[in-house]
């Protein structure tokens, strides 16, 4: 993957993205509370958290303990098992953020994640781009990802209209292009790919090929949540590609999906 595509159908309007991300930024004075809340979500899952030093922090200063390790994008020379372990942890974190806690650190910068070979843990050191997501939105989003993973194009189309990706008045070409992009995203979690090969997939090329149709034919922008959400997802996929791993993403996703609790009125 040589770029960061908008993986769920509509080409990203960069000005809209900037506005959405700016509106959701966390002020320095609230950063300690955000970091503590984020850490509280994941401390029991052996995932990514950092210890804040409240006594050394102030309204314009945010202090944490020193992290031991190296940025994950510098781990390309580690053995295959270690690289798979890193990517599995980060993918699992991303899925938990989205579908269990609906609370995500949306900045995909690889330098935010440090890997410690001695403890075999990945730790995160920045929470300024953290935001929450509405339960009703996530009920529908996990359903559309599941439909794509299962190869159900009809359900992807219906869910996309219900979520506001499509109005229902698009051209056939636009509907096909949008559904194609969702299906491409779903391949990562498909049972047809027991171990998804990030090193040799062509996701970027195929999505990029659909962008001109989407730009020309779309009648509405995607839901605002998508800008930050897919910024993070794209970053996770790109990291897995950079570390050249093959791993069973389907298992990680289905573990989340099988334990997901839907609100009754969110079901299509």
Automatic annotation (TrEMBL):
Annotated InterPro entries: ABC1_dom (IPR004147), Atypical_kinase_ADCK (IPR051409)
Domain (ABC1 atypical kinase-like) spans: 54-157
Biological process (GO) annotations held by this record are: ubiquinone biosynthetic process
Q: From which domain of life does this come?
A: Eukaryota
| Protein name, UniProt field | ABC1 atypical kinase-like domain-containing protein
Q: Which organism is it from?
A: Rhodnius prolixus (Triatomid bug)
């Amino acid at each position: 993957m040589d770029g960061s595509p908008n993986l769920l159908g509509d080409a990203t309007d960069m000005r809209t993205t900037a506005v959405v991300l700016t509106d959701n930024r966390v002020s320095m004075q609230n950063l300690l509370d955000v970091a503590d809340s984020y850490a509280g979500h994941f401390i029991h899952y052996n995932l990514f958290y950092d210890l804040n030093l409240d006594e050394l922090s102030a309204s314009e200063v945010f202090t944490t303990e020193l992290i031991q390790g190296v940025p994950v994008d510098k781990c390309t020379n580690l053995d295959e098992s270690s690289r798979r372990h890193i990517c599995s942890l980060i993918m699992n974190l991303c899925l938990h953020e989205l579908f269990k806690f609906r609370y995500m650190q949306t900045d995909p910068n690889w330098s935010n994640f440090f890997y410690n070979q001695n403890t075999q843990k990945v730790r995160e050191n920045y929470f300024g781009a953290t935001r929450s997501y509405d339960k009703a939105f996530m009920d529908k989003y996990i359903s559309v990802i599941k439909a794509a993973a299962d190869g159900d194009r009809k359900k992807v189309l219906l869910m996309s209209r219900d979520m506001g990706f499509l109005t229902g008045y698009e051209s056939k070409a636009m509907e096909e292009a949008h559904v194609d992009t969702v299906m491409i995203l779903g391949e990562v979690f498909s049972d047809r790919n027991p171990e998804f090969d990030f090193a040799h997939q062509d996701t970027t090329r195929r999505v990029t090929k659909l962008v001109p149709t989407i730009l020309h034919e779309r009648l509405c922008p995607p839901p605002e949540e998508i800008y930050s959400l897919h910024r993070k997802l794209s970053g996770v996929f790109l990291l897995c590609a950079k570390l050249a791993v093959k791993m069973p993403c389907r298992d990680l996703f289905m573990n989340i999906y099988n334990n997901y609790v839907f609100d009754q009125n969110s079901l299509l």
